[in-house]
Amino acid sequence: MKNLNFCPSCGKKSLTWNHEKKWSCTQCSFVLYHNVAGAVAVVIRCENEIFLTQRNQEPKKGKLDLAGGFTDPNESAENTCKRELFEELRLHIDISNLRYLTSLPNVYQYKEIDYNTLDLFFEYNVNEKFKVDLEVSEISETIWIPLDQINLEDLAFDSQKKFLESYIENQK
């Protein structure tokens, strides 16, 4: 964790990290919580294949990823799915067809800061495969891959590896 040393309240170099979720000032009792962030991941499925993206930026540049992202303030998980799929893939979805599957904790490291996330997994079925006009800043490639050909080690995030391992097993 990148250390924050100076208290934003009193300005003194007196912040301490409790190695779990908060910084506290030893001088003025200010507390800064580093709470869990909500994120979504969507299994876009066409029959026995799922849609994966290849990351074009850190963290985990070059690794495979499910489409999704962080929830904005005042946004539902379903609306996050809709927004992220449009931003990343220019894909318009009907949120009433999203199916919530499960949630898993994860750590998303970005610029030396570990963000604890709660990843919410959804499934979205499509009738036919599609191609997308890639948002180059986030995605370098897309792939449709049969469930039985997914190599979990190619995935970017531990929560997605754990999720897909269970998801694939439940499809048998």
TrEMBL record:
CDD domains, per the entry: NUDIX_Hydrolase
A matching Pfam family: NUDIX
InterPro entries with a match to the protein in the record: NUDIX_hydrolase-like_dom_sf, NUDIX_hydrolase_CS, NUDIX_hydrolase_dom
Domain of life: Bacteria
Ranges in a coiled coil: none
SUPFAM superfamilies from the UniProt entry: Nudix (SSF55811)
Domain Nudix hydrolase span(s) in chain numbering: 32-168
Record flagged with keyword Hydrolase: yes
Keyword Hydrolase on entry: yes
GO molecular function, one term: hydrolase activity
Alphabetically ordered keywords of this record: Hydrolase
Cross-referenced PANTHER family: NUDIX HYDROLASE 23 (PTHR43222), NUDIX HYDROLASE 23, CHLOROPLASTIC (PTHR43222:SF2)
Protein name, entry field: NUDIX domain-containing protein
